[in-house]
Amino acid sequence: MPELAEVEFYRRQWHEGAAGVVVRIHVNEGQRVLRSVAVGELRERLTGARMIDSEARGKQLLFKFSKGNWLGVHLGMTGELLVEAASFEPTRHDHLVLFTKSRALVFRDPRKFGRNLFYHGTEPPGWWSGLAPAIDSPEFTGRCVAEFLQRHGKLPVKATLLLQEKFPGLGNWMADEILWRSRINPRTPSNQIVTGKGRLLWKNIRDVAREAIHWISPALGEPPAEWLFHQRWSRRGQCPIHKELLQRDTIGGRTTVWCARCQPALSSRV
DNA sequence: TACTCTGTTGAATA
DNA sequence: TTATTCAACAGAGT
Question: Model pTM greater than 0.85?
Answer without folding.
Answer: yes
